[in-house]
Amino acid sequence: MDPGNQTRISDFILLGLSQEAELQPLLFGLFLSMYLVTFTGNLLIILAIATDSHLHTPMYFFLSNLSFVDICLTTSAVPKMLLNIQMQNKVITYEECIAQMCFFMLFGGLDNFLLAVMAYDRFVAICHPLHYTVIMNPRFCGLLLLASWVLTLLDSLLQCLMVLQLSFCTELEISHFFCEYNQVVQLACSDTFLNDLMMYLATGLLGGIPLTGIFFSYTKIVSSILKISSAGGKYKAFSTCGSHLSVVSLFYGTAFGVYLSSTATQNSRATAIVSVIYSVVTPMLNPFIYSLRNQDIKQALRKLFS
User: Fold this and answer.
1) Which of 61, 162, 156, 157 is nearest to 106 (CA)?
2) How sure is the predictor about 266, in pLDDT bands with cuts at 50, 70 and 90?
3) What is the pTM of this model?
4) CB 168 within 8 Å of CB 188
5) Contacts of 63 (CB under 8 A, 6+ apart)
């Protein structure tokens, strides 16, 4: 493949969610508000957990990491969109596009693995409470987090390196508000079979395996809760994983819907709009879901503000 074909690529065009000029101020205000809420909310969760010694447990350790990843996930896409709207310029350079794509895949994959790890943590806490501190020891929690980073980093680097081998022609318009992997690959002039194959393998393995783990964990959790005789005991057990289950449903319901339906429809704009839910809305809602339903987080936030 001629490397000169790639060096001539300097810019991509991000078409965004709408090309109507009168909607741009509304989109700017909406996404700026959501980004500030996401950043502030998740940062408060991190600070509350870090400053309250009662929250130095595996569940909140993973929650603080999830909040950090959510901040990074949103930051990888939204600020560039806001800048383009403000400057009335839809251009993103080739280098920026590749970097944005890599970071978005990295933090999106980490979100995926952390949700699975948190499901396992709830499984151990509810199904094996007497062995919880032994199983979920700090070393094991650190290894779970490290494994999540390594796997998603390798996947992101591999897929981005494969994109760098592609040649692009004159059609460089991306019907999205950020450089989404599938959208970028579709613009290539060269053969994308290996890229498509890698994308489906990564989605199946790095997406399917954690989802299977979550399903298995909650199957065991529900089975254990049903064996509890008292209604109060059932409610207490379920309340410890209700917030996580809400986040899982929102994240996977939209993410898999977008990627699995993208090959069946040609409406890229509709796909971009749905992508907003898992890339912007879900990270924004996570702090509210965990803080409103969690007395420990509420108490830690009160201490933080006081």
Assistant:
1) 156
2) low
3) 0.90
4) yes
5) 45, 49, 118, 290
